Amino acid sequence: KGKGKGQKGKKITLKIAKNSIRISLDGGRRLDLSHMGITTFPKCILKLADVDELDLSRNMLKKIPSSIQKFQKLRWLDLHSNQLEELPKAIGMLQNLFYLNICNNKLTTKKLPEELNLLKNLCILNLGLNCLDSIPTSLGALKELKELSLFDNALTTIPSNVKNLPNLKKLNAKRNPFPDSTKQEEHVDSIKRIENLYLVQEKDLCSSCLKICQDERDKLNKLKNVTPRPSGKPSFPLLLTPNSSAKDNQEEWRLR
């Protein structure tokens, strides 16, 4: 009664696993066992270790065994939305791994294996929605990393060698208790406001560029209902006294 279900979760047989293999867009073989109520890593899928992608997301897994290293061809591993509290060191043996999603689990910094730094071909890593209070500096060895998600953790800092990874294009670290985060955001915003501002002197512009700038300036003046200032000696009719009555000989004026 209730065989294969209940607290033990759904039992995955080799037949079920084989029927769950799909062909991905790039022609790879994808084993999709997501959202199936699995509580224990199904050993039978080790017989299908030649797949390119493995999706075990949205289950109730608490542990991934060291035997995961048998999936040597694996390029894509999705473990998000489980109850994982740790990862095996053997995960570092998946040298072909391109994508690793372990978002929305219960991982702590202590249970994050240092062997992650062995994943030299990893381009996308999602560690969001976990219990991480720091990020190992060893992740700075992931030189191919392009996208790193660290959102919704307990981070107060990110190692500089991780932030400055040479190929990193996206870093999502939202909703972490970084100190002075408001000031940091204001500082970043102020930089963005002037990042496209370039100042040059008129003498450095060619005649055509100078004419374009002058025409644009004249248009702007008209929009603001400001009469363009005539060339020659500038005048300041709106200035108040004593400058309005100052003579060309300022020394004489001061002596009075």
TrEMBL record:
Region Disordered: start-end pairs: 224-256
Top-level taxonomic group: Eukaryota
Keyword Repeat included in the entry's annotation: yes
Cellular component terms per the entry's GO annotation: cytoplasm
UniProt keyword list: Leucine-rich repeat, Repeat
Occurrences of domain Disease resistance R13L4/SHOC-2-like LRR (ranges): 68-200
Keyword Cell membrane: no
Cited InterPro entries: Leu-rich_rpt, Leu-rich_rpt_typical-subtyp, LRR_dom_sf, LRR_domain-containing, LRR_R13L4/SHOC2-like
Gene3D superfamilies on file: Ribonuclease Inhibitor
PANTHER family: LEUCINE-RICH REPEAT-CONTAINING PROTEIN 18-LIKE, PTHR48051
Protein name: LRC18 protein
Organism: Trogon melanurus (Black-tailed trogon)
